[in-house]
Amino acid sequence: MYKSLRALVCAAVLCFSYGAQAQNIGNAPYSRYGLGEYNYNTGNIRNAGMANTGISAANSFQINTANPALLYYNTLTAFEIGVNGEIKKLESGSGSQTDGTANLSNVSLSIPVSKRWTTALSLRPYSSVAYEVSTTSQLNPTATATEAYKGEGGISELYFGHGVRITKGLTIGASASYLFGSIIKESSTSINDTEIPEARGESVVLSEKTKYNDLLFRTGANYRAKLKDQLFISAGAVYSLKADLGAERKSSFERRDFFGAVKEAMYADSASSKVNIPSSFAAGLSLDNGSNLTVAADYYAQKWSEFRNFRGEQELADSYRASLGAEYTPDANSVGNYFERITYRAGLYYGNSPYEFNNEQIKDKGFTVGATLPFGRSTIYDLYQLNTAFGYGTRGTSDNGLIKENYFKFSVGFTVNSRWFIKRRLE
Predict the structure, then answer these.
(1) Cα–Cα distances in Å, from 396 out to 27, 82, 260, 355, 418?
(2) Domains held by the chain: number
(3) Strand-pair partners of 264
(4) Which of 8, 36, 92, 245 is the most buried (most CB within 10 A)?
């Protein structure tokens, strides 16, 4: 088992390195602002199936990094790897288009250090940028001007968390994350004139590549109490401290031909600055029967109005997200019916995104479903699970010159739980 798990970890790291570069497929026009589209799912695929709830919903066989205090409940060594994807239809007053994307969502490993302490490592996207927008206007009867905006890249998060039990029912946690990545943004102008065919397709491009890196700290707590037989209540909270990302930007003006090849580099410059990520707060409440049913509700808020970009400009608004989710396993020990051993999940969410245009803040709402399917030969030493999550949602509106997104998301991943530190007797 150890050799197989080591091989999985190595393969996961290699795949994530590729996935971090390949995550920029598709068109997400709102990712043009701030640091891109923020990854709300700081947990795993289990959380994704429950509308990303999980601040107070612990699970012994899933690595819940949404609240570091819940890591305490992972009493087995666990390894997770997952991929996610999205199919998105963009609608505006002038037309519509459909795009898709797929990338590795997370690689996580949790290890119980003692009976009261579990630690975890995770690598996941923090934000992503992937947009391409262009507009064309008529200058005169023979000439048109095209303005194009393109961006790609994102920020990854290397997470290191700890969960510790203080007393019966009370656990606390803390995590430190290293944020790193680069975002490339280009804006170009090209003029096509039928009377000047030799200049057709040429453009002047402002290219800006910004590298970001710094540390992000979170603290969490959770308290679980028994209300009566087969009914427990849990309350959790997570506070993310403000972070100032170091930013180094290289910019240049370039003249390019129709195929994008650089014909002339006219100006190049580099500069350094700070980009601040505002603090955030999340709270959750959940009920469970201590066996096979959990219902959870979360609320998340972040003061993105305090965000300042590389130039010190404000371009975002305060955001919030409310979600409700549940999971149910008919009979985890069923022998004759496999479907009774499956864990089923569903959830709803609604909130304001950080984007605001024409005095209208972009809203995001949708629903999710998911399941965990046991597979392989599970023993007291090893447990194998296939995790799935699916969601459909809408964001924004096509009114007032804005863009509406209708999206379908899916996630698939594996979880392996293993008892590593057991002294076995030789008969």
Answers:
(1) 15, 28, 32, 9, 44
(2) 1
(3) 255
(4) 36
